[in-house]
Amino acid sequence: MKISIQDLTLAYRKAKVDLYYSSHPSIFKIAEYEEKIAKNLNDLLEKIHLKDESWVTEATFYGEWSLDPKAIKKSLTSVNDGLVFASPTDEWTAIVENKLFPEAEFRLMAHCSIDMHVLSALWMLKVGDIYDRQLSANSYGGRLRRKPNNDLDHLALGSFKPYLRPFKEWREGGIKAMQAGLASDKKIVALTADISSFYHELDPEFMLNETFMSRLGINLNEGRIQGRSATRFNEAWNTS
To answer: What are the E-state strand segments in 23-132?
Structure first.
């Protein structure tokens, strides 16, 4: 598939909005990138068309990482059950005096280059769309912005739909299902789970697993989706 400068310009527009609304926006990096945006995007385009892909393994491309403070795990339950401190200073003093050894918790944060953010947005436009299209409405998190006919919305601001509303629908859907079960005098069991550092532990190699792609009806090598989405994707691919 041929990638054009128009594709990268659209990807940059998506990446910029995604970064701006992230928890750690790279405002200064964006401003610096835009000082020579035409050159930067054309340089990236040249790299994408290279047969040698070793540039994606260079630190100047994928960036750095840091451990940012997230929380402090502390508890006074073993000393003063039910005691609540109005002053954080008094609470911390009590913790230290009772030698409870609070634990600091950190969050792993990526500090990628703008080029990597642009390439990631391009991947979502060209490849991520293929996977996302196969998901049902029961998948709520991190869904790409689409038009009413389910085609990818290239002109929408940012790559993803706002998450708060889908999260509310997911939560209320579970509550309603439990309420309906109880109203019907059924015995129900509700399970909730949260996987710690899920995305940090997830190996993306599964997306290239032949069995996984076969079940979704995806054939990346031929540049098309098999099955129910074949016609629509082939049309989009041919016009790219």
So the answer is: 64-73, 103-111
The two three-digit tokens of residue 191, written as one number: 């399970």
In the chain, the N- to C-terminal Cα span, in Å, equals: 8
Question: What letter does residue 55 receive in the DSSP assignment?
Answer: G
The answer to whether residue 104 scores a pLDDT higher than 70 is yes
Provide the token pair at 220: 């990346």
Instruction: Please say if the pLDDT value at position 228 is more than 50.
Output: no
Query: Locate tokens 């030698």: which residue?
Result: 99
pLDDT for the residue 100: 75
- 154, HSE (Cβ side, Cα atoms, 13 Å): 12
Confidence of residue 225 (pLDDT cuts 50, 70, 90): very low
Task: Give residue 115's region: left, alpha or beta (phi > 0; psi -120 to 50).
Answer: alpha
3-state secondary structure of 209: coil
The one-letter amino acid code at 178 reads M
How far is C-alpha 116 from the chain's CA centre?
14
Instruction: Quote the CA–CA distance of 16 and 14 in Å, as a whole number.
Output: 6
Q: CB neighbours of 1 closer than 8 A, spacing ≥ 6? A: 126, 223, 237, 240
- Using only the alpha carbons of the chain, give its radius of gyration: 23
CA distance 132 to 50: 28
Name residue 227's amino acid.
G
Task: Give residues with Cβ within 8 angstroms of 100, minimum separation 6.
Answer: 74, 75, 76, 78, 79
